[in-house]
Amino acid sequence: MNLALSDEQEFLRDAARGALTRHKTIEAAREAADGGSLPDLWPTAVEAGWPGLLVSEDNGGAGLQPFDAMLVAQECGRVLAGAALLGHVPASYLLDRGGYSRIGEVADGSLRAAFCAARPPGDVVTEWTVDPRRGLARGQAPVVSGDSVTGEVPWVPDAPGAGVCVVVGVENGEPVALAVEGASVKDVSRYDRTRPLGHVTFDGAAGERLDVSAEEIGSAWYIAQALIAAESVGTVETGLAMSVEYAKERFTFGRAIGSYQAVKHTLTEVLRQVENAKSLLLYAGWAGEAKADEFPLAASAARAAAGSALDYAARATIGVHGGIGATWEHDAPYLFRRAQLSRRLLGGTHDATDRVAGELLASTA
Amino acid sequence: MDLNDTPEQAAYREKVRSWLEEHKGEAPVLQGEGALADEDEITAARRAWQGRLAEGGLAGVTWPKEFGGQALGPIEQLVVNQEISRAGVPGILDAIGVGMLGPTIIAHGTEEQKTRYLAPLLHGDEVWCQLFSEPAAGSDLAGIQTRARQEDDGSWVLNGQKVWTTNAQFASYGLLLARTDAEVPKHKGLTMFIVPMDAQGVTIRGLRQISGEAEFNEVFFDDVKLPADAVCGEVNGGWGTALTTLMFERVTIGLGSEGMGYRSDRFAHAIAADPEARADGEVRHQLGEITTELLAIKFSGYRTLTALQRGQIPGPEAGLAKVTLVNAAIKAGDLIADVLGPEALAEPGEWSYMISFLPGLKSAGGTEEILRNTIGERVLGLPPEPRLDKGVPFSELRAKEREAVAS
Fold first, then answer.
1. Does residue B294 share a domain with residue B204?
2. Between the CA of residue A159 and those of A25, A39, A53, B33, B406, what are the distances in Å?
3. Looking at the complex, does the CB of residue A6 fall below 8 Å from at least one CB of chain B?
């Protein structure tokens, strides 16, 4: 038993960190919130080989595992880099396995993909569903008939500008994945400008049917859960480091604020939550590679823990910094914006927590 | 990243499993049909079983060979723990002795002490207890007041009180931290002793807790005479010896990472049986959160093991696991009682016992608040709380405390 990263994984992580530091991504997030445009990080992703991380070597990819992509996602999250991996990577997993005709372009990044996800059935909601435009009721997954699809998938990460959408729809109650190149995407990016979002509608659009199983379609959902978890962990680590530094430097009543238990315990709680989330990233990575029947539980638990950690850390970072942490000029608000939006995407953190319970109860029955 | 056994570990696991298969008929039955009921009988049977495990090489796995151990690593200890659990037999009785006190003697004891005490400890012939905490010194362990005074002939006289002592009621020996010099700052005047529990002047009293049962003891020392060679480690160097014990305590907790029977599947059973509860959004959310935390501890334990195996010091995940475990278990107790209603609080009962036990566990091994301080300072590098006891001789400190309380 060994949970240590391999040399290759450490190299991948360090290279990702290095490549991303060439861009001032957090400053860009501030400028973008003011109406500026974000730097295009896709060329960086392409140069690093990230678009093909999960694509098999035969199809021109790196043939790596979900955990490797999670390591890159964690580094993206650390600097709020919008490198379009949350959309592209789960989509590439299905395109690779489904025999997509343009998979080589997906692997080398000349064709960027987005994942119009459907949540697998659970023990309470037993249909494949999509995130609703608003409200609590889950939306109906698009309807597939042969090689055409009709329906809407709201709030799809990285959809604007994607060259191909992988949409999960339902045909005769069974999930089907289609690669659609001509989907209509409405840009609805909001609050967190580092995370482009789109409502994607399919009006009988024709696509290429992917030859994938229901289990593989489900796995793509859980890969997305694991990626957003890894990203969140990276963002928490940034918030924690920032807060710890400030707590050592800022003095009140004659001593550093980090010496007060109230502040120290808050930051220790951030550490506790993020360390738990990191442990669960390892679980999700291991299950994604070697224990498929536990992947839904592991990825959902990682998402739940990382999502809670990000919520807590984003508020704690602002709190520890005092008033200045709530100002436009500070970096803390951009972590907060990331936390606010992430928690509500791809089923939401709350749904991941429910899925943990569902998986546990199902295994108990 | 791999959770599977290496070929060597798989071979070792097979060896352990077949030993257990062959000998499990000799293990005492503690639950279900034919279970032993009498406390003394249970203790005697578990001591004998510890002896069998030691003979089979399943106790003291990480101990050096010269003291009866197997000189193997933490991963093999985990394999043994897992296989014992799988076989459904009890583990060793004296986990504190074998996991923490024996290793302390190995690290700090004299050759005579190692020769005299280690083999009977490992085999369960002599059970040990840990005499550290006191009514007025728990998290701030260096504030202990039990005094050992040296006589002209080099022997010692012990006076004071210890508390939260597991297994004291049938222990042969205790490892005891006492103050031997009150005129120096508190960490500097401490000494570790080996104390025979049947010595004149030792009184052991069960300490009943919320459940009504006595899992722990209070131990009183009234003019207990100890020979000069009862000192373990250096005179006035007891703090260093105690830190060794506490380090082994963390390792022991890390190896037991699936933690004390607080497993999510056990909690899920209570809820899954109720169709209303299993479809209730709030119940599911609570259960999902609890499960997430308990799963995290399991994999944090594996991270700790990975670090130990690579010769590294375990990271923050090790220290925080207890906080997570206790709080998740407390939430689970609340949830189950909310679902089952007052019936969950019937006594004796599985849930009422768990619910009663956890408030105390929150402070075991140091309160949560102190643990968070320590981690904040040691791991995050935050500045320490201002301390009023730094460099102050213990006797002055006590005088100041009394003055403050009186005013």
1. no
2. 20, 17, 19, 62, 71
3. yes
Residue stretches of chain B with pLDDT short of 70: 254-260
Mutate to test the interface with B, among A10, A263, A297, A361 (most CBs of B within 10 A): A361
Report the chain B residue with the minimal C-alpha distance to residue A1: B3
Which backbone phi and psi does A226 adopt, to 5 degrees? -65, -35
B284, B300, B372: residue with CB nearest A279: B300
- Choosing from B134, B249, B293, B317, the catalytic residue is B249
B-chain residues within 8 Å CB-CB of A363?
265, 268
In this prediction, the answer to ipTM > 0.90 reads yes
Helix (H) / strand (E) containing B193: strand B190-196
* CATH code for position B219: 2.40.110.10
Q: Write down which residue in B206, B237, B268 finishes a domain.
A: B237
B249 is annotated as an active-site residue? yes
Nearest Cα neighbor of B240 from B205, B283, B190, B287 is B190
Tokens of B42: 């249970």
Q: What's the confidence (pLDDT) of residue B256?
A: 62
Residues of A in contact with B373 (CB under 8 A): 261, 264-265
The answer regarding whether domain A216-364 maps to CATH 1.50.10.100 reads no
Share of chain A above pLDDT 70, in %: 100
Task: Please state, in angstroms and rounded to a whole number, the distance separating the CA atoms of residues B279 and A2.
Answer: 38
The single-letter code of the amino acid at B58 is: L
Task: Clarify whether residues B229 and B276 are in a common domain.
Answer: no
Q: Judge whether A153 and A162 are in contact, CB under 8 Å.
A: no
Q: Which of A356, A359, A363 should be substituted to probe chain B, the one whose Cβ sees the most B Cβ atoms within 10 Å?
A: A356
Q: Domain tally for chain B? A: 3
Residues of A in contact with B383 (CB under 8 A): 248, 255-256, 258-259
On the CB side of B3, CA atoms within 13 Å amount to: 16
Contact assessment for residue B107 and residue B242, using Cβ atoms and an 8 Å cutoff: no
Residues B293 and B362 in one domain: yes
Which of 73-132 (A) contact B at CB < 8 A?
Answer: 123-124
Q: Is the pLDDT of residue A18 over 60?
A: yes
Nearest CB to B269 within list A240, A304, A364: A364
Say whether both B302 and B216 belong to one domain: no
By CB atoms closer than 10 A (0-12, 13-18, 19+), residue B37 is exposed
B236: left (phi over 0), alpha (psi -120 to 50) or beta: left
Domain span holding position B224: 128-237
Q: What is the pTM of this model?
A: 0.95
Q: Of B66, B93, B120, which residue constitutes the final position of a domain? A: B93
Tokens 């191909």 correspond to what residue? A164
